[in-house]
Write a structure and sequence with these properties.
TIM Barrel, two-stranded antiparallel ribbon, binds iron/sulfur cluster, alpha/beta, binds flavin mononucleotide, globular, 8-stranded parallel barrel
Length: about 375
Amino acid sequence: MGQLGQPLKVGGIEVSNRFLRSATMENMAGANGQVRRDLLRLYHDLAVGGCGLIITGATAVTLEGRAWAQQLGVWDDAQVEGLSRLARLIHSANPAARCAVQLHHAGSAGGGYSYGSLAQGFDLNQATEEQIKDLAHAFGLAAARVREAGFDAVAMHGAHGYLVSQFFSPFFNQRQDDWGGSRENRARLFLLVQQEIQAEAGKDFPVLWKVNTDDFLEQGAGPDDYTWLAGELAQAGAALIELSGGVKEQVKLRNRLRREAGDKEAYFLPHLQAFRQAVGDTPLAITGGMRSRQAMEAVLAAGADMVGLSRPLISEPDLPNRLLHGPDRRRSRCTSCNKCLLSIAAEPLCCLEFDPFEKVIKDL
Ligand SMILES: Cc1cc2nc3c(=O)[nH]c(=O)nc-3n(C[C@H](O)[C@H](O)[C@H](O)COP(=O)(O)O)c2cc1C
Ligand code: SF4
C-alpha cells in the first residue's frame, strides 16, 4: 500500500492515513458565518472519500477579519452549534476521519490568496499593542469554540500573507516597536497566538500550523527566517507544521513553481530537509502541486509525514480512497487551471473544469 496508507499520530490524535485536506475556502456559509447545508455536503463527501485529516477552509475569528462574505465564522458562541453539526457529520460519515477548523484573520489589504476578497479596514502598521493582543486573544477564544464543537484539533493560518503571516513578513510589517524589525519581534504574534490557544482551549488540544517556506519577494521573509520560525513553533508545542509559500499573486507564483518542479510536482519539497532539522520529530506536511500517487509517495519517502491536497480534492473528494484502494490509481484529474480559485468570491467552491453541472449552466 506504500506509506500513504500508514497511520500517524499527530499531537495525540490517531490519523488513519497520510492524506491531509489542506484548508480550502468554501464560500458556503450563511451571512453570519454559520454552517449551512452545502457545507455539510462538501465535508460529508470529503470524509467518505477517505482523507485522514480534514482541515476546513479559513474560518474568521472576528467579523471584521473576514476576507469573503460567505466565509465560515467562529467569532461567536452562537456559531458553535453549527460547527458541532459539522464535526458530528464528519465523524459519523467516516469514524476514522479526523478534523480541524482553520482559524483566520485577513489582516491588511494587499496580501493573501483572496481573489475578489472584501476590502480590509485593518492596518497592521497602525494597530495598537492592545488591538494586537485582543486579536491574539480572539484566536484563543475561537480555538476554545472549535474544541467545544467536537473537532479533533485546531489549525492556524500562519501563511499566504494574511494577518499572522503579515506580521512575520517585512514586506508588510514596517513597525518600529517590539512587533517589528528583528525576526524575534516579527514572530511574536505567532507565539502569542499559540499561547492564547493553549490557555483557552487547553494544552492538550492539538494546534496545526500552516506556514510559508518563503515569501518569494525581495523584501519578504525567506527560507532561513521560516525554518527558524517553524523551530520556534515546534518548541512552543505545535502538533504539525504544514509547509506552503507566497504572500501575494499566488496564481502567477504557483504556475511558475509548478513548471520548475516538473515531474516532482511538489514544489515546496526542496525545503523539507531544512525544516526537518528545525522541527525535530514534529510531524511535517507538504502542500502544493501533487497530483500523482508517485509524487505523493516520493514526498513521504523524502521524510514528510503527510501530503496536503487542496484542488485535487475539490475535483475528486474520493481521491484518497481511489489512490489507496484502486483499481484506478491514475493521477488526479485536476489540471491546476485555477478556475475554482478565481471564482471563489462569487461562487460556492466547486471544480468548474469537471463538474457536469457547470458544463450545463455554461451552455444555457
Ligand atoms: C479555491 C481555493 C481556496 C483556498 N482556500 C484556502 C484557505 O482557506 N486556507 C488556506 O490555508 N489555503 C487555501 N488555499 C490554498 C490551498 O490550501 C493549497 O495550499 C494550494 O491550493 C496548493 O495546493 P494544491 O496544489 O493541492 O491545490 C486555497 C486554494 C484554493 C484553490
Ligand atoms: S477548477 Fe481547475 S484547478 Fe480547480 S479543481 Fe477543477 S481542475 Fe483543479
